[in-house]
């Protein structure tokens, strides 16, 4: 691995962590209905599990309503069971053609729970970033000890400083995402 490979690898992994944290935040409900709340739901289809979006169209026509319109109406029961199993705190209304999810108004207590969930995801993201830093620093140390292509102590120190700056930057990005999500959850 070269110095440039290590830096690019660090950026790629940290960027993926940011995207994963955004995806986790999308699953945490705020005041409005959001189709991404259903992203984790899988439906058994012809012997395999498929994401809900592959077997139906999902829309949010109103602030607190989600509509699921299965392409194959025979899946409506399976979709309903999967939504109940996902424990979203919503009971699906099935009229035989579509499933309507009416999201209840969030109470102050429930909003606090969602903020706590967002804090947990924030911490998970930060831990992942720090683990990436640790792995990259270990790779840098291996470069220093590499007999075939040694790297000077100054270069190692500069690389470690660069990795730390990247780490700080990405952790700040995760904190910024949390502040935005917290505001979204708390806003009535």
Look at the structure and give the CATH class of the largest domain.
Mainly Alpha
Query: What fraction strand?
Result: 5-15%
The shape, in one word, is elongated
> What is the first-to-last residue Cα distance?
51 Å
Helix-strand pattern: HEEHEEHEEHH
Q: What name does the CATH topology of the largest domain carry?
A: Topoisomerase I, Chain A, domain 4
Major sheet attributes: 4 strands, antiparallel
The CATH architecture designation of the largest domain is Orthogonal Bundle
The fourth-level CATH homologous superfamily of the largest domain is Ribosome-recycling factor
Q: What structural class do the secondary elements suggest?
A: alpha+beta
DSSP, total strands: 6
What's this entry about, in short?
The protein has 188 residues and is an alpha+beta fold. It is built from five helices and six strands.
How would you characterize the overall build of this protein?
This protein folds into 2 domains: 104 residues, Topoisomerase I, Chain A, domain 4 (Orthogonal Bundle), CATH 1.10.132; 68 residues, Gyrase A, domain 2 (2-Layer Sandwich), CATH 3.30.1360. It is α+β, with helices and mostly antiparallel strands and 188 residues long. The mean pLDDT is 86. The protein has 5 helices and 6 strands. It is elongated. The strands form 2 sheets. Strands 3-4-6-5 form a 4-stranded antiparallel sheet. The chain has a two-stranded antiparallel ribbon with strand order 1-2. Strand 5 and strand 6 form a beta hairpin. The longest helix has 38 residues.
């Amino acid at each position: 691995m070269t110095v440039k490979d290590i830096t690019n690898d660090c950026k790629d992994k940290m960027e993926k962590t940011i995207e994963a944290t955004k995806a986790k935040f999308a699953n945490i409900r705020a005041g409005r209905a959001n189709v991404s709340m259903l992203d984790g739901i899988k439906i058994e289809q012809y012997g395999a599990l498929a994401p809900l979006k592959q077997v139906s169209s999902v829309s949010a026509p109103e602030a607190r309503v989600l509509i699921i319109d299965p392409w194959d109406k025979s899946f409506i029961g399976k979709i309903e069971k999967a939504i109940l199993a996902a424990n979203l705190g919503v009971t699906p209304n099935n009229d035989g053609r579509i499933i309507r999810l009416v999201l209840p108004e969030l109470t102050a207590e429930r909003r606090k729970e969602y903020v706590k969930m967002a804090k947990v995801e924030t911490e998970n993201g930060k831990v992942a970033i720090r683990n990436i830093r640790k792995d990259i620093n270990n790779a840098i140390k291996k470069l220093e000890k590499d007999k075939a292509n040694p790297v000077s102590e100054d270069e190692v120190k500069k690389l470690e400083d660069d990795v730390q700056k990247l780490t700080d930057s990405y952790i700040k990005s995760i904190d910024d995402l949390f502040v935005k999500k917290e505001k979204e959850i708390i806003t009535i």
